Amino acid sequence: MKKNMQLSVLMHLRYICMAFIIAFGFITLIATGGCGGGGGTPAPGPGVTTVSGTAAAGLPIVGTINIRGSNGSISSSAIESDGSFSVDILALTAPFVMWAEGMSGGKFVRLYSCIAGGGIANVTPATNMIMAMALGDDPATVYADGSTAGAPDFGAIETAKQQIAVRLESVFANMNMPEDFDLMNGSFEANGEGFDALLDTVDMTYDATDKKVAIKDKVTDTTLFEKEVDTGITSVD
Fold first, then answer.
1. How far apart are CA 117 and CA 188, in angstroms?
2. Lowest-pLDDT range of 25-29, 70-74, 156-160, 193-197
3. pLDDT at position 7, please?
4. CB distance 153 to 97 below 8 Å
5. How many other C-beta atoms are found inside a 10 Å radius of the C-beta of residue 112?
6. Sign of the CA dihedral with 180 first, then 181, 187, and 189 last
7. DSSP strands (E only) in the chain
8. What is the mean pLDDT of the chain?
9. What integer pLDDT is reported at residue 145 of this predicted model?
10. Comparing C-alpha atoms, which of 199, 202, 162 is closest to residue 182?
11. 193/71 Cα distance (integer angstroms)
């Protein structure tokens, strides 16, 4: 009799524990957003709420990084002395147009870039050239003060990156850089090595009169790439 009562109590306690576990799991499910079929957008992680990178034109750009969302809002931040930056984009709507302005090597520069969402995006003469090719015009003209123009087509951005990367293959090899280094979104430091050394080795320019972009090797004094941008993007040849 006593043994049966003990078993009964143990079973009762077991049922209570199971009920508690089920209830706790249900409450947790509600608190974290419900079932998988709800179609909600997951909360962004820390890496998605900022845009970070390096602003350099050989030497770091000492000045300000600005990021404008498609909703017209702008977030700005001072660029660190080593050219690095990180900007909160919580108040902005993707995609983003970026520009860095300040002094680099004793000269005032204003260079452009873009990114589809949070993550890594640099601002350099290379990104400025890619923007010119994708836009078919000088980014400084398209994004003049007061402009509300949005980011260029990202398909055109990718094509421009490929075209430039092909012409820089030999330079990448000489710098011991990976062949697949991303000219806009690849991580680098403005320390005179790797991609930063490449920025010191080549000139990347846009001629507003002829509407041409050009890459010139400073060491060999040869033109690696030249293209008119008013006709838009073409495939890699």
1. 19
2. 25-29
3. 38
4. no
5. 26
6. positive
7. 50-54, 56-57, 59-60, 62-69, 74-78, 84-88, 96-104, 107-115, 119-120, 202-207, 212-217, 222-228
8. 81
9. 85
10. 162
11. 37
**DSSP readout, 121-186?**
--BSHHHHHHHHHHHTS-HHHHT-TT----PPPHHHHHHHHHHHHHHTHHHHHHTT--TT--TTT-
User: What three-state secondary structure class fits 94?
Assistant: coil
Which run of H or E residues covers position 14? helix 2-31
Which pLDDT does position 218 carry in this prediction? 86
Burial 72-92 (b: 16+ CB within 10 A, else e): eeebebebeeebbbebebeeb
Give the 3-state secondary structure of residue 18: helix
Smallest Cα–Cα separation from 95: which of 154, 18, 37, 28?
A: 154
Residue 161 in contact with residue 180, Cβ under 8 Å? no
Q: What angle do CA 55, 57, 60 make, to 5 degrees?
A: 55
pLDDT at 32 over 70: no
Tell whether the torsion through CA atoms of 211, 214, 218 and 222 is positive or negative.
negative
Class of residue 231 by CB neighbours under 10 A (exposed 0-12, middle 13-18, buried 19+): exposed
C-alpha separations of 72 from 93, 105, 137, 141 in Å: 8, 31, 21, 18
Residue 37 and residue 31: Cα distance in Å, rounded? Answer: 15
Given pLDDT bands bounded at 50, 70 and 90, which one contains residue 43? very low
What's the half-sphere exposure (Cβ side, CA atoms, 13 Å) at 167? 23
Nearest to 65 by CA among 116, 1, 20, 109: 109
